[in-house]
Structure prediction request, 556 residues.
Amino acid sequence: MASAASSRRTGSTGRPPRVAVIGGGHNGLTAAAYLARAGVEVTVLERLPHPGGAAVSTDGFAGLDARLSRYSYLVSLMPKQIIDDLGLDVRLARRRYSSYTPLPDALLRGPAASGRRPGLLIDAGDEAATRASFAAIGAASDADGFASFSDRTTRLAASLFPTLTRPLPTAAAAREAAGGASAWSEIVDAPISDAIERAVDHDLVRGVIATDALIGTFAALDDPGLEQNRCLLYHVIGGGTGDWDVPIGGMGRVSGGLEAAARAAGASIITGVTVTRVTPDGEVTWEERIGGLPLESAGLPTGTELTAQFDLVLSAVAPHVLARLLGDEAPATERPEGAQVKVNMLLRRLPRLRDDVSSEAAFGGTFHINEAYSQLGAAHASASGGGIPAPLPCEIYCHSLTDPTILGDELRASGAHTLTVFGLHVPDRLLTSENNERMRAELERAALASLDSVLAEPIEPLLLEGVGGAGRAIETKTTRDIEEALAMPGGNIFHGPLSWPWLEAEPESPAAAWGVETAHPRVLLAGSGARRGGAVSGIGGHNAAHAALELLAERL
Ligand SMILES: Cc1cc2nc3c(=O)[nH]c(=O)nc-3n(C[C@H](O)[C@H](O)[C@H](O)COP(=O)(O)OP(=O)(O)OC[C@H]3O[C@@H](n4cnc5c(N)ncnc54)[C@H](O)[C@@H]3O)c2cc1C
Prediction:
């Protein structure tokens, strides 16, 4: 700390510039680390008792030695540059199997030759096996179309991904840099359903591509608003390849590394405090709370509200939350809406499969369940009509196959495994604070039923039991639960709708150039809600820190 303080930059006022970061999620920590390393006096204010936000691990199953990534679980968009700049001890493992998708009953044409059912295995390590798998589900002619769509998005990724940590390009410059990447017009100019239907024919193959457009996003694939296109774009450009990697040790290691980097550089991280007010000129008010409750409700003395003046405020909370803190009566951003249910499980062993595929292959990548194109369309229609989709489209994945370090020795030796389920098309509009408990139970049942529909045995009996009557090792989080736990409005996992990673016109300020501007020059976005900030990437924090340093250099 002393060395960081002594190397602090001072402005014309003779003191180091002061910056508040509201929200200690991984983006707030990233911003804090960059700013503190540049000699800025940084204070991070986080309402939970610990930093990390949605990028944390938990040992939530009593007596079971397993640290599951509680919310986010895979990393694609975190640039190596951020890991290197901040000297983070973050290791990411590449998955050999990209995805496995069983053929739903409705698409099965007669019994398979082997007697076991076929499914589509995308095996990055074996092109011939992948082709054979296309043939096995009756989609041999789609193998080329699928590979070619993937090549086109990879070319686009190669030109776009490096721009995410630089000032925003204009749309024209980004389009020119994409050169011959025809994925640009496929993704940017028309609903993604057009491109998918042109690229491949088989219902299941179309669904595998389409799910990238629907993670945390409630939209029809042919929606002219193109929110689903932006969602797909961010899902296919990460790292310049679109690969989704496993953070070794779990998501908590990513935030833990960022927290350590921020603290080592001298940032002050205050947890258990809720920011209640921000003024456009940089005054921030916060209250000490316990478990999100005011101290008085715990019988403790009040008078713990603090106010301080900062040169800049970086908001790493959702733009909708910031609007309330600024007292905007009619916030510029509508309350966003999430659309997922998340289920974490700890199993005695992986379930037996009905299909002709090994467990390592099926569970080692993203296992799509009931996500054929027609099923995704039907699920969207059913949720639009107010119902829980049946079957619920889900993706599951087993962290402990790629990275067993999240399990204690005994569990590991016993053959236990984690399973993470991300259910699609459950818009927050289906939930209320009154029905949340019932909906959580119904959604859990829907997710388990969806899984059972493709397994050779029911999954529930495989759940481990926590000790001391703690119950089964399963945790289900609805959008309401996510909002309550993390203050993500509507449970929207990206803090709001995603934006294109470019500008239509030349920017007029450093904040606009970095995609972090608000209506107030002293207040910048630094979280997922910043342009290009969605997902676990640190990009929102990185870009806000760079804009802040430019602004501070101008002002002090
Ligand atoms: C269920 C789920 C699954 C996901 N899966 C993935 C995935 O696999 N891969 C991926 O890349 N992304 C995933 N995401 C998205 C990703 O986790 C988020 O986009 C990202 O973590 C957001 O980081 P952040 O730092 O911007 O904000 P957050 O993580 O939301 O952190 C914001 C912090 O601000 C705090 N805060 C809020 N209000 C206040 C206040 N008034 N005062 C003080 N503090 C406040 C909150 O407590 C929180 O800690 C997932 C998200 C969810 C919820």
